[in-house]
């Protein structure tokens, strides 16, 4: 069973993503901000990460860079609100594999995770 780290400061978004992924056979770990995401990545070594861009303490872009320092092969998809295209481009350059726009389409989330896990 593939393990997915879901990172979002909005508990509602984490709950939606967790429910969707567990119903589709994934094990899910949650983090509420970038600092927690980096720590959980170190501890759990998930197969894929769904990483929100806008969060307190450490944003998704910085968390992406920190995780990629720990594991250059980390498979990360950014979760973004509309209008953050420039940040998404920066994230892709920094090693993100994909992105999902909020409010997310369940099929798009599953496709992004499947693409990352291969």
List the helices and strands and how they pair.
Layout: E1 3-7, H1 11-23, E2 27-31, H2 34-44, E3 48-52, H3 60-70, E4 76-80, H4 85-93, E5 98-101, H5 106-117
Parallel strand pairs: 1-2, 1-3, 3-4, 4-5
Helix pairs in contact: 2-3
How does this model look, in words?
The chain is built from five helices and five strands. With 118 residues, it is of the alpha/beta class. It has a single domain (3-117), classed as Rossmann fold (3-Layer(aba) Sandwich), CATH 3.40.50.2300. A five-stranded parallel sheet has the order 2-1-3-4-5, with helices on both faces.
What is the CATH class?
Alpha Beta
Order of secondary-structure elements: EHEHEHEHEH
Oligomerization: single chain
Instruction: Output the strand order for the largest sheet.
Output: 2-1-3-4-5
CATH topology: Rossmann fold
Q: Note the total helix count.
A: 5
CATH superfamily: Response regulator
Annotated CATH architecture: 3-Layer(aba) Sandwich
> What's the structural domain tally?
1
The percent of residues in helical segments reads 40-55%
Mean pLDDT rating: 95
Rg, rounded, reads 12 Å
Distance between the termini: 13 Å
Number of strands: 5
Measured by DSSP, the beta-strand proportion falls in 15-25%
Uncertain runs are none
Biggest sheet architecture: 5 strands, parallel
Q: What is the 3D form?
A: globular
